[in-house]
Write a structure and sequence with these properties.
The structure is a homodimer of 183-residue chains.
Chain A: H1 3-13, H2 18-24, H3 37-49, E1 53-58, E2 66-71, H4 73-83, H5 95-102, H6 108-139, H7 148-179
Antiparallel strand pairs in A: 1-2
Helix pairs in contact in A: 1-4, 2-3, 6-7
Chain A binds a DNA duplex (28 and 28 nucleotides) through residues 2-3, 17-20, 35-39, 41-43, 45, 60, 62-67, 91.
Protein name (chains A, B): DNA-binding transcriptional regulator, PadR family
GO molecular function (chains A, B): DNA binding
Domain Transcription regulator PadR C-terminal (chains A, B): 92-179
DNA sequence: TTGCACATGTAAAATGTTACATGATTAT
DNA sequence: ATAATCATGTAACATTTTACATGTGCAA
């Protein structure tokens, strides 16, 4: 998979400029796919050249003009084809796990420093969970989803919430383990 | 962070060849950091040139010679310095979440195809969980860890187990949501 | 004799990161 | 005036992925 597909989904949900996409990749979509604005502009250019998306110029008073991108029929076909492909195994990059195993090869002071850092990292994840929960209350207040799109967005958000809760519980386990090391 | 640090941790736990490392990155370390043998050989070369690791030639009867890499004192210092750095936020790449949100933009047949694929993906994760649990019974049978290294390896494994259990529960949620779409 | 495990690499293409670059409006 | 937000890009560099490349020994 590539960034292209995440952009197609985002533009189908809501057409927008590269700048707006970059912000979505910082917020909602960033939950499950990250990208910087530099990447996004480059890929938007390529997708436009390939005819997957098309831009309309939007003149704005008081602000720079922007290009509002929308998905074309060929772009939509690219997405539906991709949806039928196998889901690839996730490429895991869990830096903290590497550090925790690495903690066996540092001194006591280093282990304490890691413990402090894990506590800070835990606070970050607590904030993310709070943000997800607030978003859930705001966007999905009822028990019955409004439509398919809402139902699917909600289940993805529930995945994010479940992930953060799991991480917080594991970080508590890590903190207890670091505190319990021989010294 | 980079692959270098994961390799340093792995070689400190047990010196070995590039080939052996590639296998560890398919198994135990692959739980939290993935790498192919091509990446590993290239990075080993650079780390050797930088003096972080050193190789001894191991002549083997009946098999190709191999180079057993171990971490040098400078390499160990690189690791301890890195352990003191901030843990970077994870770069998330959750392809399935993109597909689930994308399912709002395909037809019923496409949604059913995704459902089938999610079920297959779920079976993969069930197998991973079973492997982790078997590894836990094998490597950590007692209640009290043998030493620091074992305690830290065990808490990382518990993280993998917690992750897989969370994913399985979420995939059930996804399956129920896909089945419940309007049609 | 076919395939698998062991063992190590190179090359090209795609992707991703970091730094640089510009310029307007709005709020403090 | 100063910073933040909106808006779009280029350039250089690093990393990752995919394909190619080679060769031995052992077991079925």
């Amino acid at each position: 998979m590539a960034l292209e597909h995440a952009i197609l989904v985002s533009l189908l949900e809501q057409p927008g400029s590269g700048y707006e996409l970059a912000h979505r990749f910082d917020r909602s979509i960033g939950r499950f796919w990250t990208a910087t604005h530099q990447q996004i502009y480059r890929v938007l250019g390529r997708m436009g050249a390939d005819g997957w998306i098309t831009a309309e110029q939007v003149d704005q008073r008081g602000r720079p003009d922007k290009r509002r991108w929308s998905v074309t029929d060929p772009g939509r076909a690219v997405l539906t084809d991709w949806l039928r492909e196998e889901v690839q195994p996730e490429a895991v990059r869990h830096e903290l796990a590497v550090k925790v195993r690495g903690a066996a090869f540092t001194d006591r002071a280093g282990q304490v420093a890691l413990l402090v850092e894990v506590a800070r990292y835990r606070a970050d994840h607590e904030a993310v969970l709070a943000r997800y929960l607030a978003g859930e209350r705001r966007d999905f207040p009822g028990t019955v989803p409004a439509d398919d799109r809402a139902a699917l967005q909600h289940v993805v958000l529930r995945g994010g919430i479940a992930y953060e809760r799991m991480v917080l519980a594991w970080l508590d386990d890590v903190l207890a383990t670091l505190r319990g090391l021989d010294h």
